[in-house]
Amino acid sequence: MKIFKWLATLFTGMAILLGVTTPVHAVNGTLTLNPSSESGEMRFSGPSGNTWEQYMVLRVNGEAVFCLEPAVEAIAGAYVGREFNANEYVNANVQISRDTLNRLNHITYFGYKQNPTDKNYSYTQALVWETTGARATSFSGTLSMGEYQSWKANVLNKVNNFKNNASFDGQSHTLKVGESITLTDNYNVIQNLFVPAENGGYKFVRNGNQLTITATPNAADGRFTFSQFRDNRIHGASIIFRKAGSQTVGSFKLSDPQSTFVNLTAIKNGIIRIHKTSELDGSAIEGVEFAIVNKATGRELSRQKTDKSGVIIFRDLPANVDYIVKETKVANGYLNKRVSKEHRLQPGQEFTMTFTNEPTTAITSQATAEQGGKAVYAHENQIEKVNLDRLIKGRDYKVVSTQYDKATGKAFSHQEKTFRAVDRKHTLSFTYKAPSDFAGTLV
Questions:
Q1: Residue 32, pLDDT score
Q2: Any residues with CB less than 8 A from the CB of 115 and at least 6 apart, and which?
Q3: 437, 361 Cβ separation under 8 angstroms
Q4: pLDDT per residue as tens digits for the range 84-96
């Protein structure tokens, strides 16, 4: 009767220093044959003929190992182990190449180590034999061939699609401060890796096979690596154990943890956007000139005019600098209040300054004698009608009217009226009494 057992955990004495594995050349261990919680037996055939074994788990130094010679009995006791050679000769019927070893490493990882049950051990042992030239022909008791075939298809799908790095491994991305990007890992590696909440001024959020990265004001340019935690049960050197006259067994491990990296660059410069509108109706004003100045140095950095939308954008401005933006030229029909504004630009910030201009008031007036015409006769009233346009609703205005001799320019009198605009247009009238010596004078 042949007995073979599952791989659990083999501590091979590997030294780990700063994430670098030191190769193990010789490892001594004790093989034990441990009862399985599953009952029954597995029959199999191979180059050495047909044989069978009861379900059990083989361990060396407490870690599960797998049989490599189906027709040879496993005898408990002291074993000598070493790392697999690139082309390992087990016996005349079993030779393990580097590619086959790599496949066995992944079969034992997905078949057993991710969920180390006794059932998974027995099915993994069957697949190890199948990979090295033998095959299971039947299972009795608590295991079955139908379940094994389904289990095998699932494990081999994972083995065949295994990737050590995420699909976005090595990509480079540039982010503005405050901006986020989401990377999708089509290889489903990222969910196995350690992802810190924040590192190097970037925030990281993992959701399934997606990684969202957000640049903060402290973001630094660089390479950011995410790795699977090293687990001595899973990662390290694969060891072949031998004992004269007994079954040869193997401890299989992934050489290195999964990992991936991305290159990130942060744009910390920002922009200041100017928006210029009319106080009359909020419409955009084109052609207004603004200058932007570094407050600390007094140096003018740029001078531009608003476009049809009343907008100017001062781009690529270094962060953490105080800027002064001032209006240098107004558009026709508007007053220049010589307003300036200051702002300290934060990393990656897009800041908007709003400026308004008061339109110049349009005034037309007509002065006539009370009976019409321009000549005023003794004791006749003179009327001046004033029409105002482009008024700002709710604003108070004062209009001054002056009566004077047109020929000499001499002023005789004046009047003032105040009002609050309720519309953009308003009309006022001024009435003057002409003195007797004013008769016949043009006014």
A1: 98
A2: none
A3: no
A4: 999 999 999 999 9
